[in-house]
Amino acid sequence: MKKLYILGLMGLMMASCKPNIEPAAPSAGEGVDFSSYVAVGNSLTAGYADGSLYRSGQVNSYPAILAEQFKTVGGSSVFKQPLLNSELGYPGPKLMLSMTQGLCDTVASLGPIRYTGALDTAGSSQNIYLAEGPFNNMGIPGIRCVDFLVPGYGAFNPYARRMFVAPSGSRPIDEVLVAKRTFFTLWIGSNDVLGYATGGGEQAIAQAGNTHKLSDVNLFNTAYDTVLNALRRNGSQGVLLNIPDVTSIPFFTTIPAKGLMLTKNDANLLNNAYNALNGFIRFGEGANYFIIEDSTAAPKFRHIKDGELLLMSIPQDSLKCAGWGTKKPIPARYVLTADEVAKIKTFTSMYNTIIYQMARRENIAMVDINAFMKTAQAGIVFNGAIFNTTFVSGGAFSLDGVHLTPRGYALVANEIIKAINNKYKSTIPLADVNKYSGVRFP
Amino acid sequence: MKKQILLMGTLLLSSAMAFGAAFQLNLQGVRQLAMGGTGTAVPWDAATIFYNPGGLSALKHVQAYGSVQFLSANTRYVETPTGSYTANSREKLYTPFNFYVGGPVRYKSRLSLGLGVYTPFGTGIRWDDNWRGRYVIQDIQLQSVFFQPTASFRINDVVSIGAGFVIATGHVSIQRAVPIQNMNGQDGKAELSGNANGLGYNIGVHLRANDRVQFGISYRSSVKMKVKRGYATFTVPSTVSSSFPYTAFKSDINLPQVVSIGVGIKATDRLTITADANYVGWSSYDSLIFDYEKNTASLQDTRSARRYKNTVIARVGASYTIGRKFTAMLGAAYDPSPVRDGYVSPDLPDNNHIMATGGVVFRANKRLNIMGVFEYVFTPKRDASFDEANFSGRYQTRIVNPGLGISYDF
What pLDDT shows up at residue B92? Predict the structure, then answer.
């Protein structure tokens, strides 16, 4: 009997031996309704990555990640995105990491190359609004803030053309109001500086849509104000995101100004060749500053200086085989000079002031992505994984050096969630960043 | 002339491997454990080789003693601050064992000799491979066996002294995911394992003030467990495998010194009450260093701050003789965590431990004792973070730990 009693007691203790803590239920907070969420933005909102738009990038866009978290606090189970069927990129192929050997490489090395096989883009150019719209994710790759007021914008932009109700007649601002909306995020303005920056500044070549110029600040102000007013008109709550300083992204930081490695012999040969310039161009053994084109310098070229940026789009073979940066100056369209960098920073700052003031005026939350980028440069750790703004190894930026990986987008989503939780006293769970994909290695 | 810059960033490969507080088992002697882990003052049996070597000369006969515990720990993790995620550590049974033999070299000799073979540190924790803390830890397992030859001398009827030399051996294995994904999105993996060795000592004084009151003081030295040549294996995509070579590594951990004082009072002929205090010098565990033999830009030596703090454990116990055959024991202990907030890693989600213990000794005959113990360890929930990995959450651990032992007097 006694034994049985002891066994019974032990059984009872066994049953209570499991931990019993439970998570707190998420709360939507006060004065906000997440039932219909609309994301307005550009390529960053669309889920663009690796130099193109493709389905899994869209599926893991930050608005989709946010919508998933919103489900825990009354968000709709349906978040419609203008999904492509293509996994390889539309309209152009995406970048993938691969071992490659350029013309002048002695060994193959790991680097991003465009997918070269047949594309899976059949039917991608079709307008899908009637079949699948209206869309909650109104991220339109390439769009600038000032484009939102342009009638017929959809005719210029292949992504807008797919998803707009009336591509050749409407203004983007009309289109983003189509889907029912109780909550919105607005992240526009990056392309108002990015086209200028990725085009190499003043030398940027005009493209369709004319995105290579820095947008006029007054025009930016008017467009932003109009878009925000329209989104707020029905009383929707929302979050604004400001513009990151694009000069800190890997597209501009991966090739260092002083990245020209020379042997003593090569340096001497080059110095001899530039002898006539009396030391204006000078090389030494080890790390050297590249030679860049500069129409204001006396011989139309000079050494690049610290703080000036080389674009990742410089053809590698031209650097390695054709003597760019040594025998020939790197063309100005691949360089941001100190003046151009300053101009980009000034405009970014002016645009961000506008966004900040409008967030204040509307009393809605703003995510300071520009400050977050600076934090990211130093490194962000999430559950043991380190992210920073270094190309490829940093894990946050995709292979185009401009757009993010799904993990990078999840980090952005978490910044938005923190801003929401702070503003509305809600407790929306953060997204599990590491659940999403980072850079993938062959 | 210019290489494309594609170095993999230095990975966080530091945190794991902790012979920490939860790994300090303090599971010595069935009777002592059942009395809340008190054993410094009263030399009940040969387990005093561990608790207080000075008590060994109190044994009248040479005794052989063996015991084994069946420990299972359950830890739950709840993500904070907003926490929609929970994870439970996997069930696993650990069986720390103790073996002691010792006693007077001759009948009524003042000199006693003995040997203890015991497992003072052990266990581990296993999380699911895909859990959210996988880049910090998936699995850590530690085993240790200490060998302690011991001598004790009874100076007079009051004072006995004793000393033991500790030869420590151990093994550690660690597995964690590495945040480098292959083309299918699967994580890389790091596996580290190695043998550890160290030396130390254990000394004690036992005082029999009178028939009713005994005291004990013991000092267990710190033991520097050295992993001289462990091996690290990395499973990563082939294009970056040269950055993560198969390599040897070195590491070491200072196991803490422990000062114990105890008192035992025979309140009645049947009832003995004991109390112990242990001062544990955990501050020896200041940082954890991994020194890889082959370093690359991505695989650097790591130094992880641990900054453990010293603790004092309080223990009380009681033993009550029931008839001629049975003795029942009860006890409790409070073992505060040496781990500071901000340093609580899921490889060792440590917290203050509250222990309740109970047990029975069955005296089969004059020489043979059969002993049973049940220990229940409760930890309050702890909101804590591992700042180095930016991994935070709420933890709760429950441990059940029955054990059996047998002793035989020659």
Answer: 83
| Separation of CA B104 from chain center | 30
Say whether B396 and A17 touch across the interface (CB within 8 A).
no
Q: Assess if residue B14 is contained within a domain.
A: no
pLDDT tens per residue, range B311-342: 999 999 999 999 889 999 999 999 999 989 89
Helix A338-362 with A191-198: angle, nearest 10 deg: 170
Residue B14 has pLDDT above 50, yes or no: no
Nearest residue in B to A257, CA atom: B2
* Domains delineated in chain A: 37-250+341-435 (3.40.50.1110), 260-336 (no CATH)
Residue A14: which of B82, B237, B400 has the nearest Cβ? B400
The three-class DSSP label of residue A63 is helix
HSE on the CB side for B9, CA within 13 Å?
23
pLDDT, tens digit (0-9, with 9 covering 90-100), for B206-264: 999 999 999 999 999 999 989 999 999 999 999 989 889 999 999 888 888 999 999 99
| Position B3 in a domain | no
Query: What number of other Cβ atoms are within 10 A of residue B366's Cβ?
Result: 8
Q: Number of structural domains, chain B? A: 1
Model ipTM value = 0.89
> Cα(B313)–Cα(B336) distance, rounded to whole angstroms?
7
CA distance B347 to B288: 13
For testing contact with chain A, the best of B3, B84, B129, B240 (most A CBs within 10 A): B84
- Rounded Cα distance between A199 and A205, Å, is 7
pLDDT digits (tens, 9 = 90+) for A375-427: 999 999 999 999 999 999 899 999 999 999 999 999 999 999 999 999 999 99
**Sole residue written with tokens 């109700």:** A165
Res A274 pLDDT > 60: yes
Query: Which residue from B82, B86, B184 is facing A430, i.e. has the nearest CB?
Result: B82
Q: Report chain B residues whose CB lies below 8 A from the CB of A22.
A: 78, 86
- Measured CA to CA, the distance from residue A370 to residue A375 in angstroms comes to 9
Cβ of B6 within 8 Å of Cβ of A316? The answer is no
CB–CB contact A383 B389 (8 Å): yes
Residue of chain A whose alpha carbon sits nearest to that of B86: A23
A304: closest CA among A258, A265, A270, A343? A258
Q: What's B258's domain CATH number?
A: 2.40.160.60
Classify residue B142: in a domain, yes or no. Answer: yes
SS3 B199: strand
DSSP element (H, E) containing B320: strand B311-322
Per the structure, the complete domain to which residue B73 belongs is given by 21-409
What is the C-alpha separation between A244 and B43, in angstroms, rounded? 71
Comparing CA positions, the residue from B238, B220, B218 lying closest to residue B165 is: B220
